[in-house]
Amino acid sequence: MTGTDLWRRAIAVAMAVSAIVSYFLVGAFGRELMAEIAIFAIFAMSLDLLALCGLVSFGHAGFFGIGAYIFGGLTVLAGWPPGAAMLAAIVAGALIAAIAGLFVLRTSGVFFIMVTLALSLMFYAWAFRNPMFNGGDGMGGVPRVDLSPIGIDMKSAGAFATVTMIVCAVIWVGLEIVLGSPFGRMLSAIRQNPGRVRALGGNVFNYRMAAYVGSGTIAAFAGSLMAQHANFISPDVGNWFVSGDVLIAVVTGGIGTLIGPIIGATLLIVLKHTLSSLFGYWYLWLGLVFIGVALFMPNGIVGAVMQIQQRLSAKSKLEHHPESEDEV
Amino acid sequence: MLLDPGLLAEQLLNSLQLAMLLFLLAIGLSVTFGLMDYLNLAHGTIYMFSAYAALSIAQRGGSFWLCLLVAPLISTAIGLLLYFGVLRRAVTKGHLVQVLLTVGVIYVGGDCVRMLFGDAPNSVPQPIILSHTVNFFGFEYPAYRLFIIALGLFVQIALYLGLERTRVGAVVRAGVDDRATVETLGINIGLVFTFVFALGAYLAGVAGVAAAPIFGVYPGMDISIIILVLIVVVVGGPGSLKGAIVGSLLIAFADTFGKILLPQFAMMMIYTVMAVVLVFRPHGLLPAGRFRV
After folding, report:
1. Which alpha helices (H) appear in chain B, and where do they start and end?
2. Exposure of A31 by Cβ count < 10 A (0-12 exposed, 13-18 middle, 19+ buried)?
3. Radius of gyration of chain A, Cα coordinates, nearest whole angstrom
């Protein structure tokens, strides 16, 4: 394990501790907010998995929306039990990613950004015009998964927040393992130099496809949770500004760091709620925060922390071995 | 429905007029992207600022022609201030940081406009001299929209001559193809980029004034146009004038005729066109040399 891995995990522990502490400090509304943060963090981690192999999607809300709509449609309109509907949402996310991947993975860079945006807006346009789901007005009455057999009442804000946060933590651990595995190392290698990976005999397309399908699956899963959280679905879950928000959460936290997207998602949702209650023109302040992060922390919050840590450790090495300066 | 020649001709002209507006916005975005890989989502904000500058001139009794003369200059000045103040610092930082930074600028710009002018949509009156209609073989077409088509054609010809026949144009084309080599020849590419950025901001400003009497002036007009313009850039292929012309025509026709043929799925038409183009030509239809890998 390298030093940066250790730091990332230390930050994760700090996040978990602060989540537990704030859980007991906030009321029911705060716990609803914590559930929203956990769901958005899962969504942000799914985008980070894709970013690991160097692909930036500006349409990830498409998968988020598909998950929400499959879940909402099957439970409300077809009367499926929520558990089965969640499974269907996950499978749909994986299938659609596999099919879309055949086309979108032919592109990269800004073209990938735009073609993913187009696909997600196609979902938005479809949902907006679909009378089955009340079109642009959205559809209410979406139930939550029933965990009463094991004694959990998901209708209470506290229980729902706890479950979503545990799920978020489990997904984080799972993706950390993927990140450290040979598969994860291949994704990093592809991000750094796809041409060299190809020259070494690696099949770039297959690895990217695997990351895209995994990413779409997790995003659809997060979408099905969001439908349960809000008890409501509307085409806006798949709109471009949701894709923008999740991208901004990942960049703000620190791309490719997994814990960064969780921090970014937390910051974004807390900022939105705080600023909108403080100021009439709160987008101005949100925009200023984005500009500040882009200018002063181009590698995100986790990137900035790691830079400070590296500078400190370099300094302490110099202090312990003052002669090493001469050697250089 | 399309068999009615009058309606067909009218829609063709509407498409052309939309294409010209899209072109005025797309060319700046396309060349700045081609030259420096800069993804400037705040390009639409400059367009909006120009429309609001035109609105305040018109509200003070200024004529449309005064708006067309002054407002783009104001938006260019704001664009350059933004460039030297914040945007320039993300030139080497990659698309993600540029997206974060320029989305921040969009948010700040949008709320500034709301604070100064309120949320209500406004409109700038058409110039009196162009407020009549022209009779085309039996159907009436607004003269002002013909003026926009003429304006767009004029800019396209001027840009073509500027890019193909002048030294600065040659430097810009060479810079898009291979920035490093141009720098090795002792040319200050940063200066060229600043010039291209300013020209792009000016043309976005012209588009803002030209669009104001038709589409209105409202907060959020920047976001609703920037997605279309980005689609034009990638469909046409970044960095090339021909790409911007072809892309804007294709997307304008898809939008206009999509609304007639499939009114339920008008938005879908554009996205489908873009997805199909990128699947078969992953770098756009007519990209500049560097993107033609």
Report:
1. 5-36, 43-59, 64-85, 95-117, 143-165, 167-177, 179-184, 189-215, 221-236, 241-261, 266-280
2. buried
3. 21
Indicate which of A52, A96, A110, A205 best probes the interface with B, i.e. most B CBs within 10 Å of its own CB: A110
From the list A109, A288, A298, which residue is nearest B97 (CB)?
A: A298
Beta-carbon count within 10 A of B289 CB: 14
CB contact (8 A) between residue A114 and residue B274 = yes
Chain B: closest CA distance from residue A52 (Å)? 13
pTM surpassing 0.90?
no
Paired with B122 in beta bridges are B217
**Token representation of residue A252:** 């703000």
CA-nearest residue of chain A to B108? A284
CA distance B132 to chain A (A): 36
Residue A230 has a CB neighbour count (10 Å cut-off) of 18
* Distance of residue B217 Cα from the nearest chain A Cα, in angstroms: 19
pLDDT at res. B34: 86
Q: At what angle do helices A157-180 and A28-52 cross, to 10 degrees?
A: 20
Is the four-CA dihedral A116, A117, A122, A128 of positive or negative sign? positive
Say if residues B282 and B238 touch (Cβ distance below 8 Å). Answer: no
In chain A, residues with a C-beta closer than 8 Å to the C-beta of B234 are 110-111, 114-115
**pLDDT digits 0-9 by tens, A114-152:** 889 888 988 988 888 888 888 888 899 899 988 888 888
Which chain B residues are within 8 Å of A295, Cβ to Cβ?
Answer: 86, 89-90, 101
Q: What is the pLDDT of residue B60?
A: 92
With an 8 Å Cβ cutoff, are A284 and B227 in contact?
no
Cβ–Cβ < 8 Å for A220, A240: no
**Interacting residues of A139 by C-beta distance below 8 A, sequence separation 6+:** A72, A76, A133, A232, A233, A234
* Residue whose tokens read 């060319």: B27
Angle at B34 between CA B31 and CA B35, to 5 degrees: 85
ipTM for the predicted complex = 0.88
On the question of pLDDT at B217 being above 80, the answer is yes
Residue with tokens 């196609």: A122
> Which of B217, B241, B285 lies closest to B152, judged by CA?
B241
**For B166-182, what is the mean pLDDT?**
89
Q: Are B182 and B189 in contact (CB under 8 A)?
A: yes
Name the 3-class secondary structure at B42. Answer: coil
| Residue A140, strand partner residues | A232
Nearest CA in chain B to A298: B97
Distance from CA of A31 to the nearest CA of B (A): 28
